[in-house]
Amino acid sequence: MEIIQSEQAYSSIYKRSIEDPEAFWADIASDFQWKKKWDNVLEWDFHKAETKWFLGGKMNITENCIDRHLPKRASQTAIIWESNDPHEASKHITYQELSDHVCRVGNMLKNQGVKKGDRVCIYMPMIPEVAYAILGCARIGAVHSVVFAGFSAGSLVDRINDSGCKVVLTSDGSYRGDKKIDLKVIVDDAMLKCPTVEKTIVYQRTLNPVNMKPGRDLWWHEEMAKASTQCPAEVMDSEDLLFILYTSGSTGKPKGMVHTCGGYMVYTNYTFRTVFQYQEGQVFWCTADVGWVTGHSYILYGPLSAGATTVIFEGIPSYPDMGRFWHVAEKHRVNIFYTAPTAIRSLEKAPLSFVENYDLQEIKILGSVGEPINEEAWHWYHEHIGRGQCPIVDTWWQTETGGIMISPIANVTKLKPAFATLPLPGVQPAVMDENGNELTENGVEGRLTIKFPWPAIARTIYGDHQRFKETYFSTFPGKYFTGDGCKRDEEGFYRITGRVDDIIIVSGHNMGTAEIESAIDEHSAVCESAVVGYPHDIKGQGVYAYVICYDKPHQEENLRKEIRDMVSKVIGPIAKPDKIQFVSGLPKTRSGKIMRRILRKVAEGETSNLGDTSTLTDPSVVDEIKNGAL
Ligand code: WT7
């Protein structure tokens, strides 16, 4: 496989990838270990929301992430683990050790009757075992469904039941900064409503006492001790399921995005090596949680399939102080550092001494992901972390795309602050206007679609192909609709302007406003609510809730706290509203639809120019809302 190393190469390879995508991807795919080569590179029909890559190919992603490296790299570090507690020793796990642990997990699952195709839920902290758990599933062809360990019992129940998980892998607890979270208590709570779960396997991380239900709950260390380090890799078809990962929808319950083995492997590896220009021996640190797609693709599958050393960090950027990231980067001599704008914005506010205390000379390349990076944060990151020298790759992609789609290529293509810049080879964006016409010129603004498949595109929503088709392929028939707005400037560079649907991105986490509303509505005092996003200094977007109560609240602050606690309980702390405004009515059209445009403007602090309100049933509510704006 040819890795792009010059701007000219980018242009010519990009051109080739568009003219003959099948030849382009077949060439890249031939670099992997296949048990049987594919018969057909691609079959697709976006009108039916169907895509298949490397049809008939047989492989196992763990052989490509582990076994094939062993002859050369058995004793090379695969994973560096850094604890939440700076005083706890870090761990270096070699590729050989990774192989042993992953095989053990595979056998441990098999011993509990888990078979190819069964779904396994992983609800664990950022410890090496979460990597063993994920890869152990892949080893035996079980479909992993990782649920971010900050989600509530209710969210866990929804996800487990939607995909019918048979086993849950978890831990007694987890550490996050100065907090200790009793994960097993949350799992116990969830288990009351999860009839498909036969076994939970519990890793001891915090050693707090937990309830172990006989016949259902098993200790990880006991089961692992019984499992051998030899576990043949299950033969997987390219299109067999690798994992399900839930992402919020603009309406309804979260969507279980389905990714399959072959295309996902090829794409995450290719994009990892290309975008970050990964060099043999480098240490790569992606600060995301494995509960999100960024962690799947760029903590685990991308770097490991490339034979890299990847960092797993259990903690948070602000513990024990605002210098922790830089401390960890120095300690482990990190070469490529990939984080989210929200983290940069919060660290930027801390005194510079927190950065200056550390030697960051080893950092060569910086990355950003999850939301638009504002220019100020971009410059701070570039100057203070990148010493004014390191390129920043602003990588645009989604849970649904599986891997990076639009991004600079480090040290190869031009950077432009706040722009994700250019599509990677094989990615064919199209900007659409509201009437469904493609805007083919440069210097345009519209909705971002992709008109040709790439290998890691999600194949469906688990159990609901119809919803998949409606959500992504019906707005612009024949094209994949991202849900994002964008600009393409005169040079052809893309700038992602944000979601155009009812999804908000809070601290890089994708959330559906409908989901938050229904959590708020669970409070007995609440009659109805409407949630919108508003610009937030650090989080990018904050959650602004307009709430109608049955009776005018007497103690607004108390009720606000109760509502926040309710959201935290129903979804998780990440979804808690930042602002709650009590109102007596919401601006609704005669057909009963909430005019969110008005709510968004008020939340943004705009009180004039609210546009046409004449179609509202009761325009007077607008004045009340404006006057009570927070
Ligand atoms: C949404 C996808 C990408 C993995 C983590 C988030 C926004 C993501 C960027 C970027 C501007 C970005 C988009 C996208 N987004 N990266 N570099 N610039 N916006 O995955 O939770 O599925 O969210 O995140 O709005 O649609 P996700």
- CATH third-tier fold name of the domain at 82-234: Rossmann fold
Bound molecules: 5'-O-[(S)-butoxy(hydroxy)phosphoryl]adenosine
Largest sheet: number of strands, sense, barrel closure: 8 strands, mixed
What is the count of DSSP helices, taking H or I runs of 4+ residues? 20
Q: Which blocks of ≥5 consecutive residues have pLDDT under 50? A: none
Q: What CATH architecture of the domain at 82-234 would you give?
A: 3-Layer(aba) Sandwich
Helical/strand content category: alpha/beta
> So what's the overall shape?
globular
Strand content: 15-25%
Folded structure, characterized:
This protein has 630 residues and is α/β, with parallel strands linked by helices. Among the domains are: 153 residues, Rossmann fold (3-Layer(aba) Sandwich); 125 residues, 2-Layer Sandwich (GMP Synthetase, Chain A, domain 3), CATH 3.30.300. The chain has 20 helices and 31 strands. The chain has an 8-stranded mixed beta sheet, sandwiched between helices. A 7-stranded mixed beta sheet has the order 5-4-17-16-18-19-20, with helices on both faces. A 5-stranded antiparallel beta sheet has the order 22-21-23-25-26. 52% of the residues are buried. The site of 5'-O-[(S)-butoxy(hydroxy)phosphoryl]adenosine has 22 residues, from helix 11, strand 20, strand 25 and strand 26.
Question: What are the defining features of this structure?
Answer:
630 residues, alpha/beta, Rossmann fold, GMP Synthetase, Chain A, domain 3, eight-stranded mixed β-sheet, seven-stranded mixed β-sheet, 20 helices, 31 strands, binds 5'-O-[(S)-butoxy(hydroxy)phosphoryl]adenosine
